[in-house]
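Page 42, continued from yesterday. The earlier attempt failed because a stray header line got pasted into the input along with the sequence. Redoing it now with the clean sequence only.
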Amino acid sequence: MHSSALLCCLVLLTGVRASPGQGTQSENSCTHFPGNLPNMLRDLRDAFSRVKTFF
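This time it went through. Structure tokens are written below.
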């Protein structure tokens, strides 16, 4: 139990440490978000449709 909690903490800290370098990329992608939203929503609807037909 303790080793898995330690592993989770290490993974979390590694992700937090890596995230500041990606701040500029995420800021740049936010400017394109409104234009990509309809496409992303369509892809999401398609994915849910495929899951619905699967079950």
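Notes: The chain has one domain: 2-50.
Reminder to self: strip header lines before submitting.
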